[in-house]
Automatic annotation (TrEMBL):
It holds the Pfam family PRA1. Its main location: membrane. This is PRA1 family protein. Belongs to the PRA1 family.
Amino acid sequence: MSSSHKLPVSNPQTATSTSTTVPFAAPALRAFLTSTSDSLRRSLSRRRPWHELADPAAFSRPDSLSDAASRVRNNLSYFRVNYLALLAAVLALSLLLHPFSLLALLCLLAAWFFLYLFRPSDQPVVVFSRTFSDGETLGVLTLLTVVLVFLTNVGSLLISATLIGLGIVCVHGAFRAPEDLFLDVQEAPGSGLFLIFGGATAATPAVASRV
């Protein structure tokens, strides 16, 4: 009488853990950063010498309001790269003096980069087993941006820093006599600040297809 022995069969169950999947296109970000860095370097190479900007002998009181406006226009045409660098320095200093606002802004930019701008279009965002479409991801990021900019002090900080920077530029342009400056021929809209954003946009064609 033969007895059949049943071998124990282990049937382990794989536990499904909630995970967050965020696909990311690293080459696209690398190309964007490289293009932005190159464009920024080319734009900064067009800046005027800083000693011309701060030459004490070139400052004088404008004769009238129209003279001040004319000086501002001429100085903006000549020192536009220097003025943009000065404005960026004021913004950076304001953010450094408010670390929480700086951290919140960096987190928001990282969310836009990793979750939307440089994410492959064929790979959705999966957070805690919940799949988000492109439209839902864009809506959530837009809502977060509105809340951060308009319902916190980040927006007021950026606006106040921008106004302070523009005020410095206008005061300098009004009191800096441009008679000794050689005004170059007006460059095409592919130079200066436009070159920075133009080169960065050209490096990320996938971003434009999402909008």
